[in-house]
Amino acid sequence: METVPDGDVEPCKIQTDAQSLDSLFSECTRRLDEERQALHQSSQALAKERSLLEKEKAEMTSKNINQGDVIELNVGGENFAASRRTLLCAPTDSYFHALFSGRWEESLSRDSQGRVFLDINPDIFRVLLSHLRTIAFTDPEKRPYLGKDSTNDREFWGTMKYLGLTDPLLDEVPIIDAYFLRVDGSERAKVTPTAEFISVKNQQQARGHTFVCGAKNLLCNMNSAMWKVRITSKKHWMFIGIIAKPAASNESHLDNTSYGLAGPGQTVKSGKTEATPSWTTDWQTGNTAILTLCLEIGALEIIVFRYDGAETAEYFKIPISNQHLNNSSMKQEWRLHFNLCDPNDSLEIYPTMTKRELEVFDSLRGG
């Protein structure tokens, strides 16, 4: 076999290297062209949206229409009120946005009281309005994804399609109205609403029960409710669950409508603590919990996410007593319920969950 003298390079190797470089250059050029095209399309879309906004602003000015106007609506027989600014948080190219832009002000259908009439399901509109109010104070570049109502999927998405609101916007799914009410009158807990979550903190100087109770949840009217809670500080013992009472007290975790998870191995069912061998790790700082109350399956489901270097998730299903399921007056009273036992124990309640959390939740519950 002929050898190649030192310092020389085989011609075939030079050719191969040249071909590799040509291929790499072609691939880089192709990707650069794609990015340029995408940037150009994005620029065109922004220019179009800016043009529409300017046109809309001019039309609103000419008709003396203000974004601060309060719009009264009759939606499927139920009355609502919202600022025009909130309603215009819908995508600018949607039919819903156009309805309240001022362009069609004189042609809108109205009831006998002059309220704008929308012939759609009021429960679905309530979810939509909550979503719009959430994004009204959210960074425009981080508008939350309009999630679906799991109890009436076909009608929900049919309505969204009719209103032109089917485009996903981000990796967030709204699950509750961003409203939380402390009903413990002892001033033991501090509740602080922010634009992204609601903070709850035990402000006692010594250890002792501090109960916090949520407001009625939006989706309870549809036989289901979902909450997301993140523990930001926890020392010894904490209870996270639900209750079907309008108020909390020092003993409310023992109420017969109380359900949830407490200390290591403690599941609370109808106010009674039961041993749960699978629940041995307890609540920990940094945990995220997704709680779902589904009256149709008769259970409180809890997914506990842990992030100790890697994500892990545990699933718990706590049956609800038939006595409580069959009580029609109790149906509207279910709400989030906490016991923060130590000074500075704290957590956060979020109105949205990520698609990743939703996917894990569905996979663990077999959905």
TrEMBL record:
<dbReference type="InterPro" id="IPR000210">
    <property type="entry name" value="BTB/POZ_dom"/>
</dbReference>
<feature type="domain" description="BTB">
    <location>
        <begin position="69"/>
        <end position="141"/>
    </location>
</feature>
<dbReference type="InterPro" id="IPR011333">
    <property type="entry name" value="SKP1/BTB/POZ_sf"/>
</dbReference>
<dbReference type="GO" id="GO:0051260">
    <property type="term" value="P:protein homooligomerization"/>
</dbReference>
<dbReference type="Pfam" id="PF02214">
    <property type="entry name" value="BTB_2"/>
</dbReference>
<protein>
    <recommendedName>
        <fullName>BTB domain-containing protein</fullName>
    </recommendedName>
</protein>
<comment type="pathway">
    <text>Protein modification; protein ubiquitination.</text>
</comment>
<dbReference type="InterPro" id="IPR003131">
    <property type="entry name" value="T1-type_BTB"/>
</dbReference>
